Amino acid sequence: MTQVRLEGATVTVPVDGSPDRRTRTILGPVDLVLDDRRVSVVGANGSGKSTLLRLLNGLVSPTSGTVSVDGLDTVRDGARVRRRVAFAFTDPISQLVMPTGREDVELSLRRLHRSRGDRRAAAETVLDRFGLAHLADQSVYDLSGGERQLMALAVVLATDPVLLVLDEPTTLLDRRNTLRLRALLDGLAQTVVLATHDLDLAATADRTLVVDEGRIVFDGDPRAAVEHYRRLVDEP
Asked: Which domains are seen in the chain, by residue range?
């Protein structure tokens, strides 16, 4: 099982217009060991949960402290970490950079398969696996929101990462596509860490973190975490 370790991980940003270069802390310090198969993260907008997720593959570097994935430091070993950790953004269109899904999957496989023919064959296998072969040559702009989300996941999972990190993956999906996504995630061999406002989805994890004002305020049983979060946001 993949292990993610955060030791004193803190993220600070400059205070706009501050003449003395003051900073404010948007996350941390965080001390965590994540080694569960499914981890969900809940919190209000601006709580720091997206920053926490971005630490896991080096999209954000800690201002102080360290973050490591299976012993690889996300700053010092950034390239190796990103080969092990896939990150899926809320809006899949920001991840689908080529005209069609097939081209996007082939692009993600360029490091593993130097030959164009090998890349195409490997991409076909990936698209078949996710049931997307019939959509592979359509413009990504002609796909539905659910189809785009699944295509984006196929792209990031094509290289068989050990950890999949998802930032609010169901935000743009209707109920049908949310259930389809949940079924897909349930069938993955990868460790999954996801941030979500969907509390039903959060409760299906093995472990849930509640983030509030840049701090982990609850870490444990998903249903207890959801109740903690409800009380937190319902307080006047």
From this structure: 4-234 (3.40.50.300)
